[in-house]
């Protein structure tokens, strides 16, 4: 299986830290955030990784190279301007191939072992969901007793920024910038999105304060 790490964002919520350093290279626990992802993917048996880049792209490429130093092989998808999540995946499809792939947001930290996720089967997506953090108490989606994800319903869980996706989810969209969320909701309405409730450690590293908290935890 291949994986894609989303690393093309501007990191506006992380300013001023991202004024001169792209968010994926911000350090926690003594190493860049994106290196934690690469190490976890490799430990989970994934060796082929696609990374999309835009803001300060050359800094990220220079830091990671072809991935050999981390036991993986990196293919780079360069975006002249950020294409949002859906558009970034759509552009990277030639690098990802036709099989389902693991998608990881670059600005999270999670202890999930990718091998825990069941195969997609006939689904277009399988979302990793977590208990709602304090900063997002309303959650995102409902996971029912049969493991199906719905846009509406209670109780709600938060999307962890990790998913298994079938390339068909975005393959027929026109190139350019577009969001992934509407496509996921459409697939939910068709009954083709499963969910996995991850109860282990997870952090949305979206602000300097949460970055500092995670750094203290990993060093402690």
From TrEMBL:
Pfam families: NTP_transferase
GO molecular function, one term: nucleotidyltransferase activity
Start and end residues of each Nucleotidyl transferase domain: 3-123
TM spans (from-to): none
Domain of life: Bacteria
SUPFAM superfamilies in the cross-refs: Nucleotide-diphospho-sugar transferases (SSF53448)
Keywords: Nucleotidyltransferase, Transferase
Gene3D superfamilies reported in the protein's UniProt record: Spore Coat Polysaccharide Biosynthesis Protein SpsA, Chain A (3.90.550.10)
NCBIfam families: NAMPUrTaseMurU (NF045761)
Protein name, entry field: MurNAc alpha-1-phosphate uridylyltransferase
Source organism: Halomonas ventosae
């Amino acid at each position: 299986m291949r994986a894609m790490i989303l690393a093309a964002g501007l990191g506006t919520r992380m300013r001023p830290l991202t004024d001169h350093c792209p968010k994926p290279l911000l350090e926690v626990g003594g190493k860049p955030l994106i290196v934690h992802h690469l190490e976890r993917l490799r430990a989970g048996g994934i060796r082929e990784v696609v990374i999309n880049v835009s803001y300060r792209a050359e800094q990220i490429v220079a830091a990671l190279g072809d991935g050999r130093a981390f036991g993986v092989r990196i293919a780079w998808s360069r975006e002249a301007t950020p294409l949002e999540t859906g558009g970034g995946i759509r552009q990277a499809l030639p690098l990802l191939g036709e099989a389902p792939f693991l998608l990881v947001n670059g600005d999270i930290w999670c202890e999930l072992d990718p091998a825990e996720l069941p195969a997609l089967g006939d689904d277009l997506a399988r979302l990793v969901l977590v208990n709602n953090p304090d900063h997002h108490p309303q959650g995102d989606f409902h996971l029912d007793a049969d493991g199906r994800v719905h846009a509406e319903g209670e109780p709600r869980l938060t999307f962890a920024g990790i998913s298994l996706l079938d390339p068909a989810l975005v393959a027929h969209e026109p190139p350019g910038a577009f969001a992934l969320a509407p496509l996921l909701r459409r697939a939910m309405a068709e009954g083709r999105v499963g969910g996995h409730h991850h109860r282990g450690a997870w952090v949305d590293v979206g602000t300097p304060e949460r970055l500092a908290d995670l750094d203290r935890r990993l060093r402690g």
